[in-house]
Amino acid sequence: MSDLAAEAEINPPSPGLGDEDAPRLGPDPDRYLNKAKELVRDNYNDSHDPSRTPPIELTQVYIVWFTKVFKGWKAILASSEIRNLMWQVSYNSGTDEYYIEIYRRINSAKVKGARRS
């Protein structure tokens, strides 16, 4: 049995979605998470100033949030070594393209809620 056939047997497509290109968990559910972590590590290491901070390792990148969307997926990641930065990695399987957005925390605020009696 081919890998694709085995994966289809493990995780058959949902009826009626028409989303044949959508990622399926299959035999290696971590492959999307690992790809997102690799992209963040490489993006940071290729663009940071090594005289100010050392490069980061894959083990220093962690997933904050992950979801499947339409024909791809999105993940929000952070690093235990880099403060105040988060990355959003999106994958579009229709075009086989990854998009990386970087966010910097500028401020944190506490807002009290209004309690009703």
Notable features of this structure?
globular, 117 residues, single chain, alpha+beta
SS-based class: alpha+beta
Number of strands: 4
The DSSP helix count reads 2
Q: Secondary-structure element order, as H and E?
A: HHEEEE
Cα shape: globular
Q: Assembly state here?
A: single chain
Task: Give the biggest beta sheet.
Answer: 4 strands, antiparallel
What does this structure look like?
The protein has about 120 residues and is α+β, with helices and mostly antiparallel strands. The protein has one domain. It has helices at about 5-10, 30-45, and strands at about 60-70, 70-80, 85-90, 95-105. A 4-stranded antiparallel sheet has the order 1-2-3-4, covered by helices on one side. A hairpin with a 5-residue loop joins strand 2 (about 70-80) and strand 3 (about 85-90). The chain is globular, with a radius of gyration of 18 Å.
Q: How would you summarize what this structure contains?
A:
With 117 residues, the protein is of the alpha+beta class. It has helices at residues 3-10, 31-47; strands spanning 61-69, 72-79, 85-92, 97-104.
Topology:
Blueprint: H1 3-10, H2 31-47, E1 61-69, E2 72-79, E3 85-92, E4 97-104
Antiparallel strand pairs: 1-2, 2-3, 3-4
